[in-house]
Amino acid sequence: TPVLALGTVILAFALFLVIIFVEVDPASKDILIYVLGTLSSAVTMVLGYYFGSSLSSKDKTKELQNIVNK
Prior knowledge:
Layout: H1 2-21, H2 26-51, H3 53-69
């Protein structure tokens, strides 16, 4: 769903800003960097879906369905 995708992107950017601008305990920073890496891969998948071939494939399927139904 778009809400979950948007939440993932916002959370990743927020965590990125926390790591840059907030003073964090060194032990906690390692955990935050690990979580940021995980979120970064999730953001990559979200962007790949919405701007990659998955969305255009969905649109193409819809167009083919419209042609068949005519």
